[in-house]
Amino acid sequence: MDRRPTPPHGPRRDALRAAAGAVALGGLAGAGVRPAAAATPADTLVIVREISSIAEWDPAVSQILDTQEINSDIYDRLVGYDPRKASGELGPALAESWTVTPDGTQFVFKVRRGVKFHSGNPLSAHDVAYTFKRIISLDREPARFLVVSCGTQHSQ
Q1: Residue 110 placed within a domain
Q2: Is 71 exposed, middle or buried (0-12, 13-18, 19+ CB in 10 A)?
Q3: What are the residue ranges in the chain where pLDDT is below 70?
């Protein structure tokens, strides 16, 4: 049986930690250690966001608006809203065009040529198919929306 002493608990423990932290910080300041700081050039805009509410960064499952806004700066989409059209219609992005079968059960995307991942690997139709299969197989809320709205069946 392990009989090591347990650390103090409660307000005393918190006070001891605070005192130790103050001593450590005071010692660092006395040793000439200062926090890192950088001057922002006058012609530079700095944008800061509070992101502590973000628990999931995966674009296949994240539903928080903050995450979607940040991910849209990192990941390209097959289609997107065309900012040149006030009607809010979808326009090409990674897919230069697409068609829908008359019964609405299949979407055929023509992927732009020359698109590369950050690694330098080319984007292919296999990558797009893998992404859709992954989204559906995760069986989380965005995938459930895709399944219901498109009538997609979950299959492995």
Answers
A1: yes
A2: middle
A3: 1-36, 142-156
pLDDT at 23: 56
Domain count, the chain: 1
pLDDT of residue 60: 83
Q: What is the 3-state secondary structure (H, E, C) of 116-144?
A: ECCCCCECCHHHHHHHHHHHHHHCCHHHH
At 109, which CATH number?
3.90.76.10
Nearest to 130 by CA among 111, 114, 145, 149: 111
Give the list of residues 6+ apart from residue 68 with CB closer than 8 angstroms, or none: 59, 62
With both helix axes pointing from N to C terminus, report the angle between 141-150 and 125-138 in degrees, rounded to the nearest 10. 110
pLDDT at 37: 75
Torsion of CA 122, 124, 128, 133, to 10 degrees: -110
Spatial CB neighbours of 140, under 8 Å, sequence gap ≥ 6? 60, 61
The model scores a pTM over 0.70: no
Q: pLDDT digit string (tens) for 24-47?
A: 555 555 556 666 677 888 999 988
| Domain region containing 126 | 65-150
| Residue 91 dihedral angles phi and psi, to the nearest 5° | -130, 170
